[in-house]
Amino acid sequence: MSDPWFALLEKKITRISDQDYRPALFSLEHLLVKASGLYRVGSNLRLALYRAGLLKTKRLPCFVISIGNIMAGGAGKTPMAIYIAELLIKMGKHPVVISRGYKGSLATGAKIVSDGKTLFLDAQVAGDEPYMMAARKTFPVVVGKDRYTAGKLAIAQLNPDVIVLDDAFAHVRLARDLDLLLFDHDRPLGNQRMLPAGRLRETPGMSKKRAHAIVLTRCPPPNRAGKKGDGDQTPGGEHKNISSQYEGIPVFKTCHCPYLLKWVSVKKNPADVLSCPDSLKDRSCLLFSGIANNKSFGEAAAELGVNVVDHLEFKDHYRYKRADILWIQKRAGEIGVDLIATTEKDWVKLDRDIQWDTDLAVIGIKIIVENDKAFESFIKSKVG
Question: Which residues of 32-50 are buried (b: 16+ CB within 10 A; e: fewer)?
């Protein structure tokens, strides 16, 4: 199948999998529902083989925390991994974050992206999220599709007492001591169908026995709760449904708080802009992003008070070419905006030699836990 046709089919399936629908006979939706039935059988069989010990689980000689979800797509796993790693450092621990390096070029084995001070790999090799975390230089990051191999490398060369697995709930080959299962606040179970008819990799029933805590991400802050929902209740009652399906498992709520992480200025001193909390307020802005949920970036920018005139959306993990940057700058000039803004994940992939004609704002995301003391106590009680 040619690339344009494949891309078109992929786009259509992605759109279908994110919608509520009743499949008509002989439709593409009907085929996807049939395929999701096969996917469910395969997933159940795989988990049953691990439970029976016919597929072996390996264990590392230190405490392991897994952060993941059962929905394909973004649920804020990487910001949560950063939050957990920084929380562990605050507790006096020495964590290492391990990622599979999705979309990175490392095919086999494992490599150290950063020891917490020095970067050893770029985004092309490490993958976007691992490189983004490593670029912060606050904790070591290791990549490897086999997390056990990556964990052994981390233990041998970085001497951690806690390993944090980013996006690893389904990677049951590696044993973990604490599993944090994340759900997006607005649409936690999607259309409640499994891949490819929906976004679920597992059902709540399949995952309940492995989850130690549920984390709802992207909840509206308490002062804005009325705009998107009322606590545990969404229009479809999905959060109440989750609470009942994961009965007895603690639930923590978090919100994503955007902030101005970096400023690349044409005229102004970046330090002056970064020191002003309202530096973006009421400024006209062109957004560009290539993340799993581009819409969420638009909402984050609006939270900072910018006037979003246009948003150029790219595929998740998109590799920007020179022509893309020229197009972005040309579009900014055409609509006459005050600034261009992008995400931290996109920023780490951009060439630092780019000469920007318009001020560029890099917007980062901080995790805020609604009851942070209770959450910290929960983590402490598990880690010891």
Answer: bbeebeebbeebeeebeee
Q: How far is CA 242 from the centre of its chain?
A: 20
**Residue 168 φ/ψ, nearest 5 degrees:** -135, 15
Q: How far apart are CA 214 and CA 206, in angstroms?
A: 15
The number of CA neighbours under 13 Å toward the Cβ of 59 is 6
pLDDT tens, position by position, 343-382: 999 999 998 889 999 999 999 999 999 999 999 999 999 9
Residue 23 three-state SS = coil
Cβ pair 102, 170 in contact under 8 A: no
Q: What is the DSSP string of 167-222?
A: S-TT-TTB--SEEEEEEESS-TTTTS-BTTTSSBSS-HHHHGGG-SEEEEESPPPG
Which residue from 13, 35, 18, 40 is spatially nearest to 203, judged by alpha carbons? 40
Burial level of 274, CB count in 10 A (0-12/13-18/19+)? Answer: middle
Model confidence pLDDT, tens digit, residues 74-86 = 788 999 999 999 9
Q: The whole model's pTM is what?
A: 0.89
Token pair of 300, please? Answer: 């984050």
Asked if 120 and 130 touch (Cβ cutoff 8 Å), the reply is no
Please check whether residue 199 is in contact with residue 156, taking contact to mean a CB–CB distance below 8 angstroms: no
